[in-house]
Design brief:
By secondary structure, the protein is an alpha+beta fold. It contains 7 helices and 8 strands; from the N terminus they run H-H-H-E-E-H-E-E-H-H-E-H-E-E-E. It has helices at residues 4-17, 19-26, 29-63, 95-115, 154-162, 165-169, 187-213, and strands at residues 66-78, 81-92, 123-135, 138-151, 180-183, 217-225, 229-232, 248-261.
Length: 262
């Protein structure tokens, strides 16, 4: 039968061979549960941190995904202001005769517009110019006069243009640049609606692109509004001698928008 020293040595040898048993013996039971809880919290923190980091990277990549498109909006309008600048002149051997001819033409022009129903204040002189030239030793004087019609009666203005050669028959020498110009002044009233239309058109283009690439369209990343352009509805018809502008206009705006893709 082994003696007591031999039994004690065997017992110590078994404890040293089992670390868990040794730790269990050396660690008070009350300390084990808090250690396990701390380890669990640390593990959950690492998982949450990894998720947030991955989600942040994903969002960062999505933020860089965008498409640039253009949206167009057009609208037909009718001019609400007509301006007709009439330039005419007379040449004579003396200043008095040239001026008298121009004065007579001015009366003819006022009578012309008065006969069409325009008020007297609608036609006003805007400038005068006098030139002299030497014609074989004879000095001749040329007096140039400009008068302007300004009216919001577009229909009456069109009638005046159709009958402009009545002025020529009266002896008024119309010079180049004597043409009617029609202007649309209501641009500020239609700007917001047209910008909204252009934005919708741009989004439709972005959605078509996204559909073809297998993605979706998110919010607006950046937007640039182009300038509004007002042109003749049926092509360029700038005013000039014998040529009339048109009151039928086309307003156009182009916007450039960056949309996020998701």
């Amino acid at each position: 039968m082994p003696d007591s020293d031999t039994a004690a040595n065997a017992h110590d040898s078994d404890g040293a061979a089992d670390p868990q048993t040794f730790l269990a013996r050396m660690t008070p039971a009350g300390w084990q549960r808090p250690a396990l809880a701390v380890a669990g919290v640390l593990a959950l923190g690492m998982v949450a941190g990894g998720y947030l980091l991955g989600d942040g990277l994903r969002r960062s990549r999505e933020a860089d995904r965008a498409v640039t498109v253009r949206g167009v909006a057009e609208r037909e309008v009718i001019a609400d202001l007509a301006t007709w600048t009439i330039a005419y002149s007379a040449t004579a051997a003396d200043m008095t005769s040239a001026q008298a001819s121009v004065d007579a033409n001015s009366q003819d022009i006022k009578a012309f517009f008065g006969g069409l129903g325009f008020p007297a204040e609608a036609i006003q002189p805007t400038g005068v110019n006098v030139n002299t030239m030497n014609d074989n030793g004879v000095t001749r004087f040329t007096v140039r006069q400009r008068m302007a019609l300004r009216t919001t009666d577009i229909k009456r203005a069109q009638d005046a243009v159709r009958r402009q050669f009545d002025l020529v028959r009266r002896g008024v020498m119309l010079e180049e640049g004597s043409g009617m110009a029609y202007t649309f002044t209501g641009l500020d009233k239609i700007k917001p609606e047209m910008v909204a239309e252009a934005t919708k058109d741009a989004r439709r283009s972005a959605e078509r692109f996204a559909q073809d690439s297998g993605t979706g369209v998110g919010g607006i990343k950046n937007a640039t509004q182009g300038y509004f352009e007002v042109t003749a509805r049926d092509g360029d018809s700038g005013g000039g001698w014998g040529v009339s502008d048109t009151p039928f206009k086309k307003v156009r705006v182009v916007t450039t928008i960056d949309f996020y893709l998701r």
